[in-house]
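Q: Structure tokens for this one, please.
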Amino acid sequence: MTALIDVSFRLTRRPRSVAGARAALHAVLADWGGGEDILHSAELVLSELVTNALRAPAPSDRQVGVRIAHSSADGLLRLEVSDAGSGRPSLGCPEANDEHGRGLQVVDALSHRWGVSTRACGIGKTVWSELKAPDLVPAPSTREIAAIAVRPGQHVRVWGTWREVRDVRTARHTTGALSIVLGLTEGPPLHLPAAEPVAVRGQP
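A: Here is the predicted structure, written as tokens:
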């Protein structure tokens, strides 16, 4: 049976968002059983994609979207970064003393394949990369995962009972740390640090 697991979140257009994306990736891949090799490669690729998205000319209030997904059908880890900027990135040939321009070379070297697509809304683009990750496996139906990996439709155990998750959004503390707000079908929203372990059951 093919299993698809994915996590999506948004980042503000600030340099520290690169570190936030890396921290989220660490939490997600830890939940998915990722080893050091895939984590290292994925971290480099995601860092470059987010850095390029933050440099793309776009209004400062437009956020950068990130999606991390894995399908058991092909054993590939897919990283997507979307921004509202125009243009399409392409591989260049930077000179030895150039400070920029090598990011996509890193992505190209580490990816099984990568590309650029137009966003569904028609504004901006999505740059994606797929890395071979056959050892990642779908999580069991009841497990503990990082708060950032929780998806609408799953049930989380809070206040001694199971509550269905209606929606998931990201927020940021004054310290800059990424936090997750889980909207529940019953009770008040649940505010958690992105890497906080949460007991969940059911597939999204």
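A few notes: The helical segments are 17-31, 36-55, 103-110. The chain has two domains: 4-132, 142-201.
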